[in-house]
Design goal:
The complex is a heterodimer of chains A (112) and B (176). Chain A is of the alpha/beta class and 112 residues long. Chain A has helices at 12-20, 24-30, 36-39, 45-52, 72-91; strands spanning 2-6, 31-32, 57-61, 94-99, 102-107. Chain B has 176 residues and is of the alpha/beta class.
C-alpha cells in the first residue's frame, strides 16, 4: 500500500492519477481519499488501517498543523486523524508527501 | 529565475527569502509590498519594515492588486511578499480581480519576471490545520492553493521553510 499525505488542496489525488496513469474511475476503484475523516469516532484504528490497506493507495489530508480546535469533539477528531496517519505510514511500503504538486518520498525506495 | 518560498506563520520564511535576495549580489533590490494600510497598527508595522529594508538597499514598491501594472525602473532582484495578502486583496478589494484572481496573478508574475533578473516570492502555508471549511474561508483557501500550485510550477526553485530551516522541494538552490 502507498500512503499519500500532504496539506489540503496540495494536489494529492492529481499526483496519484498522473503517477499511476489512472483515470477518475481507476482512482475510485483503487484508492481511498479523505481518510482523515474516517478516524473520528472510529473504535478501532488498527482495524480501520487493515481495511484501508487493501487499497493500492490511501490518501489523507494533514489536519494537525493549525490552532488547537475549540471544541472537544474537533480536538478528538484531529487526534484520531493524526494517529491514523501514523499507523498508515507504518503499514505502508511507500509514503509520499505532496506539496503544491511536488511529491517527496518520505518512506520506501520509490524513485519518482 | 524565480524562487518560491512557502512557510507557516513565523516559520522564518521572510528572513530566508530576504537572505536569498541579499545573496544574489549587488544589484538593484525591489520589495513588492502587498499589505494594505487599514489602520494605525498596519501603518506603524509598514513604516518599521520599510525602514529595516531601506538599510539593506531595498526600494519598496506597493502593489495591493493587479501586479501587471507594476513597472520596475531597472533590472534587478525582486522580493514579493506576501502572496497570501495579494490573493486576499484580489478577492475582496473593490478593484480586485475577484474570480479571475489566479489568472491575474499568473499574468502579473510573468510580467514581473520579464522585468527582473531574479524574482523571489513568499507565500503562506495555511493548509495543514483542517479540511472542513465553508463559505469565504473555503473560497480563499481554494484560490490561494491554486496560486501556490501555479507558482510552484513556474518557479525554478521551491523551498518550504520549517522552523527556519529551508527544505528544497524543487530545483537546485544556492544555499542548502
Amino acid at each position: 500500500m502507498v500512503f499519500v499525505t500532504g496539506p489540503l488542496y496540495s494536489g494529492k489525488k492529481t499526483f496519484v492519477k498522473e503517477w499511476m496513469h489512472w483515470d477518475e474511475e481507476s482512482l475510485s476503484r483503487n484508492a481511498m481519499w479523505n481518510v482523515q475523516d474516517l478516524a473520528a469516532g472510529c473504535e478501532n484504528l488498527e482495524q480501520l488501517v487493515e481495511k484501508l490497506s487493501q487499497k493500492q493507495v490511501v490518501i489523507a489530508t494533514e489536519v494537525g498543523g493549525g490552532i488547537v480546535p475549540a471544541t472537544a469533539e474537533e480536538r478528538a477528531a484531529r487526534e484520531a486523524a493524526g494517529r491514523l496517519a501514523c499507523l498508515l505510514a507504518q503499514k505502508a511500503d511507500t509514503v509520499i508527501r505532496v506539496f503544491y504538486g511536488i511529491p517527496t518520498v518520505l518512506k520506501g525506495e520509490e524513485i519518482l | 529565475m524565480m524562487t518560491l518560498v512557502i512557510g507557516g506563520a513565523a516559520s522564518g520564511k521572510s528572513e530566508f527569502a530576504e537572505r536569498l535576495v541579499l545573496d544574489a549580489g549587488n544589484r538593484p533590490r525591489y520589495y513588492i509590498a502587498t499589505m494594505q494600510p487599514f489602520d494605525d497598527e498596519c501603518r506603524e508595522r509598514i513604516r518599521r519594515h520599510r525602514e529595516m529594508r531601506a538599510k539593506k538597499q531595498f526600494k519598496t514598491v506597493e502593489c495591493f492588486v493587479n501586479l501587471e501594472q507594476v513597472t520596475l525602473p531597472q533590472k534587478g532582484v525582486v522580493l514579493l511578499e506576501c502572496m497570501s495578502n495579494l490573493v486576499a486583496n484580489e478577492l475582496y478589494s473593490l478593484d480586485g480581480a475577484g474570480d479571475a484572481a489566479v489568472e491575474s496573478i499568473h499574468q502579473g508574475i510573468l510580467h514581473l519576471t520579464s522585468q527582473c533578473e531574479e524574482l523571489v516570492i513568499v507565500s503562506n502555508e495555511v493548509f495543514s490545520g483542517g479540511s472542513d471549511y465553508k463559505g469565504d474561508t473555503l473560497r480563499y483557501l481554494r484560490i490561494l492553493a491554486q496560486v501556490n500550485w501555479m507558482l510552484a510550477k513556474e518557479a525554478n526553485i521551491v523551498y518550504e521553510v520549517v522552523c527556519g530551516v529551508p527544505v528544497r522541494h524543487k530545483g537546485k538552490g544556492r544555499t542548502t
